[in-house]
Amino acid sequence: MDLSDMSSSQLATSPPPRTAIDYNSSFEESPAKRVKYSHELTKSFDEKLSQTVILVLRNNEEVVVVRSLLSSYSTYFRVLFSSDFRDSKSSSHRIRLVSAPDLHLLLTIPRAFEQGIKPNINIQRAVEILEPAAFLQMSIALDYITDVISENVSHENIIKIFRLALLYYTPLALRVWRTMIRQFQTMFNTNVYLTLKENELIGLLTDKHLNLKSEDERKVITNWIDHNSHLQTDRIVQFAQRNFSRRPQPDSTQYEVIRNRQPMTAIVSFGGWANRGVAQKIEVFNTRCDRWQTCSFNYDVPNIRRAYHGIDIVDDKLIVFGGFNGFQHFQTTVLFDLATKEWKNGTNMHDKRCYVTATKVKDSHGRQLIYACGGMNGISRLKSAEMYDYQQDLWTEIANMSHLRSDGAVITIDNKVVAIGGFDGRHVHLGGESYDPIVDQWHPLSSNMRTRRTGCTAVSIMNNVCMVIGGFNGIKRLDTAEIYDMREGLWHPVSVMHTARSNFSACPMDYSIYVAGGFDGQSTTKETERLDLRNRKWQALPDMAEAKSALRIVTLSDHSFLDELFNVPEDDGVVTTW
């Protein structure tokens, strides 16, 4: 049932239909949506005017609505009812642009938020009510419409929606434009971009965040000109003639491009153990040129100068916990806000944890929880585990694992915490176990790995599948990897890496698994590689600037903090006018 399925006669009195509401306790409201109705808004006319007003809408539909309700949700009506216009005191108003179902839905949206519940409309309906919401200046409804459209827009309809948003609501247009920048490679691959206007295409090509491969830049313009040959294209031709060149940044040394661009997604390396102690450099992998770059990270770097630590990103917070710096085993937690660029101390863990492994799991309320398992406290290996709730800044102990595990792999499979491999001080483990939060117990996996592994790393491939890579079997460093499918409970071999390694880090990005650093049996290595999951082949990548093991790498996608990491300057040489 859609929110607009109620009749217009119910507008003034009926609550939102319960069957149309998505009860989701994890839904986070924007500040605008937390605004509560206040009678203070209407004190100036409550005593002078009738409590209700008749609205004559499209097709001469008449509805009776509470005057204070309209004034609360609509700037249009608030100004109308509280001003000295001739029509302000009238008991009837004609609004031909709005239909009764549209008005009902626009009133229902803020009422739902006031009750702490989330409306549920699809993108088609959101687009339909954009114009009346903008006309009536209903800010809460407009914010919600903007969220729905921005989260569900696709490359097929994005150009039409962008132009519509330009007419009615600039904040939506800005968000859709940002989405267009993110999806431009797909728009190019599917030729959807060919319907762009000349000025729109030039605007996109001058944006440093445009998601477009360097080798495709010339094709974008030549294909667009061929498709739009019947149109006047002098400007785009001159734009190309003036701006195509080989730029000094590494992403354009092979191809002539319009400007230097910043990747939408990147891998960032934090901490680790280098030849002379804790690694000093933070590095970022530039996917546009397949190179590692040293970052100018000027935000109290000592907080993340650790090795054998845990690290994850939750709600725009980089959370660092446990580890070792050559002198002490850490029990502390520090948080870096990627938006405000500020550090703060979090609650300490219950145990000191070096060689700690951790994973992130979403609970039934949508909260991201970090599970830290095993490790070493400086004296003994651990079987204890604990859970961190960032919102409460609280570490909570959970049931102990069945075995002591340090240097194992911990991963999320089917939204469950799974601990695999590791070392208990005497033996390298062959098996793994999964945690059941309902009964607070660990249960052994249905089968063991094909190889004993400690110092290994695991990554999720799909909801039910993970891959465990490399490690040490007690005799030698491993270049092998194997896949575990929770649904069948079996392990399957995968092609071997170019470099055998243990105590390294790995993370997935863009249908590939990236592996960096580690110890190859002879020395700490700076070598990196990636596994293309589509053809199941490993590809060697350029080395990191600094050889290190026990590092942690994370994926950062479509985030403003990438501006800080890459520091790509604005290109003043781009010519857009002549």
Automatic annotation (TrEMBL):
Name recorded for this polypeptide: BTB domain-containing protein
BTB domain span: 51-119
Polar residues biased stretches: 1-13
Repeat keyword on record: yes
Annotated SMART domains: BTB, Kelch
Keywords recorded for this protein, A-Z: Kelch repeat, Repeat, Ubl conjugation pathway
Keyword Repeat: yes
Region of interest (Disordered), ranges: 1-25
Pathway involvement of the protein, from the record: Protein modification; protein ubiquitination
InterPro entries assigned to the protein according to its UniProt record, in alphabetical order: BACK, BTB-kelch_protein, BTB/POZ_dom, Kelch-typ_b-propeller, Kelch_1, SKP1/BTB/POZ_sf
